[in-house]
Amino acid sequence: MHDQPLISVGVCVYNGEGFIKESLLSVLNQTHSNLEILLYDDGSSDETAAIARSVGSPLLKIFSGDVNRGVGYAREFLAKKFSGDYMIWQDHDDVMLPCRLSSLLETIQKVKADICIDHYQPIDHSGNPCGSVLEPIIPEHDPFYTSLFEKNTMLPHALITRDCFINIRYDTSLMGSEDYDFWLKCSAGGFSFSEVRRVGLLYRILGTSLSSNHGFNLIQTKKVLEKYSCSDIERLYLSRGYDEGYVNKALCRIQIFTGNLNVALLMAQLDWGEEHNLERLFYLGTLLTRLGRHSEGAQVLMKHLESDPRSPATLNNLGVLLFESDSEAAGKNFRSAIECFPGYSDALYNLSESTPKRLTPTYIEKGRVR
What we know:
This protein is an alpha/beta fold and 370 residues long. The protein is 43% helix and 15% strand. The protein folds into two domains: 7-224, Spore Coat Polysaccharide Biosynthesis Protein SpsA, Chain A; 230-369, Serine Threonine Protein Phosphatase 5, Tetratricopeptide repeat (Alpha Horseshoe).
C-alpha cells in the first residue's frame, strides 16, 4: 500500500531500440516509487517492443500499434489508459535524473499548480552534454504562461494533474507540435504552470528527431497557432494584465510564426512601450528585410546595433544584407554573432556559404532565443 500519489508515465516510441532500455530504466530508478509506466509502440519495425519487454518490470504495460500513426495518436491513446493522480511523458531517448518526479511532485503540490516543469540538459547520441542548460521562463505575474503563444519553451515534458489531462485532449490530426498544441490549450483553459529551477532531464538531440526538422516544425506550429484569432489572443493577454504595448509585441511574434509577415510588420510599427522598444527595432528591421525592403531594413537594423552592438540576430541579419556590397564586412558580422552566441546555427551556416541568406526571424537576447 502506497501513501504516495500514483504517477503515470507515458512513453510513445517508434523505432527506438537504441535508447528505449536506458530511458525506461531511468524511470524505474526514480526516488518516487508509486508508478505505472505505459508504453505505446507506434508500429515499430525494429526490436523496440522486445527490448522494452526485456526490462521485466511489473510496473510496465506495453501496447502495440499495427501501423505508425504519429505522436498525437499515441499520446491520446495512452492518455485514456492512465490511472494516476498525475501523469508525465517520457521520450524514448531521454533520461530522467533519479529525483525528477519527486521534485516535480513536491513543487506542484506545494504551489497547488496544474502543471510543473523543470530544466533540461541537452545531450548528444552518446549521452554527452551538448550545449547549455535550458529552462522555461514562466512570468512570475502570469501563472497561466500566456507567453507560450509567442514561442514554445515547454520542453522537457511536464508533470500534470489528472484534472488537466482529463480535460485537455490531443489533436490527433497533427503530425508534429502536438505537445505545443496541448500546452496552448492548457494556458487558454486557465490551467496554471509552475517550475522547479534545476535540471531534471537529459534531453537527447538527434539529427533524425522531429525536433531537429526546423522547416517541418514551422509548418506544424503554423497549424497550431492558426486555431486562435488575433482578437482572441488580444483579449486573453489583456484579461491577464498585459498592457497594449506588450500585446502588440506578442501579436507581431505570433503573426511571424503563422507566416503573416505584412500583419506582423503592422504590429512592429505600433508602440511596444519603452521596455520593449529595442526588441521592436529588431523585428521591424528584420520584417522589412524579409518583405524585400532591404534599404529600410538595413537602416533600422543598424539603428538597433547602435544601442545593442552585441545582438547576435541583428549582426547576422545585417550581415546578410551587407554581403552583396561588402562581403568582408558581412563575414565580420557573422563571426561577431557567433562570438556573442556560440553555436548560433544561422550565422555558422551563413559564414560557410558562398551566398549567405539565412535570416533569423526571432530576437536573441544574452545567448538565448526569445
